Amino acid sequence: MTGLCLGIDFGTSNMTAYVEGRGIVLSEPSAVACDAYTGRIIAFGREALEMTGRTPKSITVKRPFYDSAVSDFNITVRMIKRFVDRACKGTILKPNIIAGIPSDITELERKAMRDALEMSGACRICLMEHSYAAALGAGVSFSKPEGTMVIDIGGGSVDIAVVSMDSIAVSKTTRFASEAFTDDIIKYLRRERDIEIGYLTADYIKRTIGGAVIRNEEIALISKGRNIVTGTPINFEITSTEVYWAIKEHVDMILQGVKELLSKTSPELSGDIYENGIVLTGNGSLLFGMDAFLESASGVPVRLAKNPGYCVAKGLENAVHDRKKVKKSGYEFVYAESI
Length: 339
What we know:
This protein is of the alpha+beta class. The chain has two domains: 5-132 and 311-338, ATPase, nucleotide binding domain (Nucleotidyltransferase, domain 5, 2-Layer Sandwich); 140-304, Nucleotidyltransferase, domain 5 (2-Layer Sandwich). Helix content is 37%, strand content 27%. It contains eleven helices and 17 strands. The strands form four sheets. Strands 3-2-1-7-8-17 form a six-stranded mixed sheet, sandwiched between helices. The chain has a five-stranded mixed sheet with strand order 11-10-9-15-16, with helices on both faces. Strand 9 and strand 10 form a beta hairpin. Helix 2 (73-87) packs across helix 3 (107-119) and helix 4 packs across helix 10. The protein is flat.
């Protein structure tokens, strides 16, 4: 197959790119800063994300992969093109792109992703479910008739799947994930403390003191926000226990999704899962105590994959290296214009 092979994990929070022969070359927030009147892209990735909440009315920061689907087609096309150009700098031929997508993506959303990739300059396109790619990237061996559960907790979706015999046996996707935790913290402070904070502040609080379990020793941090009543800037303290209760509902919903999928899994595969355990991937799995919480609540052994945030990108890399193997599972590069 001629042309460079490029693997891209399109996430609500981050985009990660693998280039054949070079490894992972880019990992940037899925954010674009645009001129509100002309639509011209002003900044991309990390630079754009840092503008969140700090721009004048003439500039808007957009997250085009809201809920892990294409929410703004035109911006998505331009962002992917910018991303592809940076990843494939110096190449002449159009790249062949394999992209990670949610397991329950609709046919309309699938078509929108293919169209966006084609308009971004792709020659051939292959779409692969996050859970399958995450299993490959986490080093899960699933070529034999034995089941292993993989949970990929991203920014906008949680992809849960049981993999066996080089395929997904059963899967479930919830259209919320770690971005929902961030929103929960914003809503909690507004509701309970009359404090308004922005996305970046809430995300920092989540990553620093957030947790899926209550810590044995409570910790706290001082942050900045605005008093809703007086309208004045304030410094405030928030504890890890407060954050735990703020995000608990969505953490419990991830557990509920796991239990629902287990109830739909055959008894034989369920027995395998109890033996082989659950593998956690995705940046959302790094939330303090997430592995311990799921293990305790489900009764199934849980392990955190190595470099969980890069498992999908690593899986796309493995798929490029062993195209014959993944082709047997139904994943194949197809010319963009023929789709």
